[in-house]
Amino acid sequence: MRTYPLIFTFLLLLTPIGHVSADPMSTFGFGPRASAMGHAATASVDDTSAGFHNPAALAALPLAIDVGYVWTQTDLRLNDRDQGVDENRGVQGGVNVPARIRGLPIAFGMSLFLPDERISRIRARPQYEPRFELFDNRTQRVFINSSLAVEPLPWLAIGASVNFLTATRGGLDMRGFLRQDPRDTSLQTAIDVDFGTIRYPTAGVLLKPTDRLKIGLVWRKGIDVVLDLHARVSGAIVIDPLVYPGSFTIDSFNVALFTPTQVVAGAAWQALDRLLVSVDLGLHRWSTYPASSARIHVGMALEGVNTSNLLPPDTTIDPPVFRDVVVPRVGIEWRSVQLMDFTLDLRVGYSYEPTPVPDQPGATNYVDSDHHLATAGLGVHWDGLAAVMPKPLRFDVAVTRHAMAPRVFAKTNAADLVGDFRATGTIWTLQSALGLRF
Amino acid sequence: MTASRRASLLLPLCVCSALVPVAGFASNQDLMGYGTRGPALGGAVTARTRGFECVYYNPAALMAADPLSEDASAPPTHGGTFAAGYQWARYALTLRHHFPRDAESQALAERVTHPDAANGLHAGASLVLPFRGVLQHRVALAMGLYVPEDVIVRARLPRPYTPSFTLVADRSRVVAVQAGGAVRLWPWLRVGASVRALASLYGAIEVAPNAVGTLGSRVQDQLVAEYSGVYAMHVTPSRGWEVGLVWRDPFVARFELPIRTDLGPKFRATLPVDMPVLQIAGTAQYDPGQLALGVARRVGALGLEVGVLWKRWSPFPNPVDNTTLGVPPQPAPGFHDTISPKIGAEWTLPLGGALALDLRAGYGYEPTPVPEQTGATNFLDGSRHVMATGVEGRWTAGGAEVAASLGAQWHLMPMRTHTKAAPGTRAEAAMLLGNLGAPDIGGGGAIFSLVVGAEVRY
Fold first, then answer.
1. What is the nearest CA distance from A326 to chain B, expressed in angstroms?
2. Contact A172 B402 (CB under 8 A)
3. Looking at this predicted complex, what is its ipTM?
4. What angle do CA B224, B225, B230 make, to 5 degrees?
5. Could you report the per-residue pLDDT of A20-54, keeping only the tens digit for each?
6. What's this model's pTM, rounded to 2 decimal places?
């Protein structure tokens, strides 16, 4: 159809919005099937979560709608005390739409994770405050992407997706009088804030050299989000009977919601008619991780007052110096087990995620350790609605367990503000999804 | 229609879904309409609307036949639609005041302001789900969006009491994301609903000396989703007649960003001033709850619709809260509810062969909800006459239809003067001291918008 190029042109034009990152997906997994297989889905993904795992895989999918729910429970401890790291719950799903342009299979997909509690959160803590840096705030955001895939050859599919984030920049302009008693202070505010768009891509390739083997390669561009706010108070400080005209400024700048650039290679091998083995190997570029603590500058100018030494000095933010890591993943699926009117797929998986966080002997206290991820799950196919549904209903469920290896952080300075501490932790994740296929 | 063709209609749904809303001021739909057909008919499309525009005007109409069909009780003529377009809007708002406060404005008792142009992209799609059996031709989905050109949201809120065209100037610079569905219960009755999404912003900035004596901080910025429902029914009581009834929930988003500052012992020793908590808070977005009723009649080539729209403006809050406790409380805006009549007409002109032309015109009257500004507030607004026109060219080939359309609106807001009342108390006198709207202030002007679009119907 000649109209399709038009549609896809619009697709590229009209996908500029959001407040998104891939990070909750790479942390907790996306889609119960992929999660049950140790997140090893680059070559084996077969649902709408392909928008994240490998957009190229969408080209082979039918018209599909998936809707599900994700639930996590965190137990992350420092010196055996639970740190109360937020859990992550929300709706996940996606749509895939196949079509043909002059016989060429193409598809467009969209996938989504919408947390229950918030669309996103940016939180900057002081750098000396110990926190599980990779889990404390980075997972607290929505994920949305739009994908396009094409299969130019029977053995080759190519796909790309666009993910979105919103950066906040703006200023607050307050005018009035500051008085000794804060209840008497009279300030009024004008606001000028823009929420701009950040777009970042994912690209994937899927090769099918034989009927039983698929090979995938995915590149996900990293991203971070800027929160850049300026507040200016102008007027006067009134200390009866003296009046000090002047101004006061607060500039806050921080970078958050970092997601590393990732390159992942994967293979899916149909070892037996019913047995699928999927493996992934990913390089995660954590070395570009920026400090998440806010850079704050306070300025003050008052007529008749030397303010140069009145305020505490600004804090120097040390670079985190994270390191790149290589993440291996493996998943196994045993297909087509018949149970009454249902067809079942049984899945297990494992992943080892080395920590990118170095030892913390100095002022910073980023906490993390190596993760062992064990997963299992079930897929159920039911064609009891054949009267109205052209293809069987599908229900998938997965449970995953993140186990953090115990790690001791030792300080070089015996008088360190925080001192030595020990980190341990476990995260459980439960995912489910109902799938419609047409 | 083949499954793959139908499937392709979901493409734009996915496109539209790639959006996340964030805080803004108010919606473009409420001010200028949505899509190209609705604006060209002056918003008189509650009963007779189709395609992605349904998500705003009447979701239930997703399962109605094409607007050009005399039998709207039939299943949808097309299995799906995809549309996109672009809107330009220009403002020429005149502010007349008599309290010049600086050299520049001293020479100007009246000046024309041109708020930023409200340009943006709209797109959307609708799809009848390809179920079989009893569910065939029963369920439809649609999504739609409006994206301002340069930002997702621009929040520009002047200080309280600053004269401003609060309801029209910045209202269209906020993204709109909507999704909805409809079910055809009987041939004469369809029901539908859609959701509009936005977000409130909650956060905090804390600045204080830390344990090592430097200036430390904690910053948090959190977007929390806000949803607003649209509930609708579409009835076809007899051939050629359509009735639409729609309720739209209020569409409100807040922001709260308190700033707590402790400048340390040296500062306090030199200047014994306790920094107050700076309450940066207010309402970033407000569309009132609305009830719309429309009746449409199709006779031959002519389609007519009349409707009324009730808007519940009375709960409208002040856009910006007071920043500190020492500021006298702001009076409530005191807006009142409004009823807006609308009428639209569409004339189909066959051009021969597979080509046809639809000529459209409409009119709506939008009474202002803003009372006369006799006190400290200076919300400038007036009743608007909305005149609309448009044209659509259609080409049918191979079971599909491709349309290109144009719509234009001209909002005329006659100059309205507000005279401040004589203060009855010292507090009122203090509020008016230095008020830019005293002793009187006026506002009026015009808004012109032009929208072009294309649509593919299968």
1. 30
2. no
3. 0.73
4. 155
5. 333 677 778 899 999 999 999 999 999 999 999 99
6. 0.81
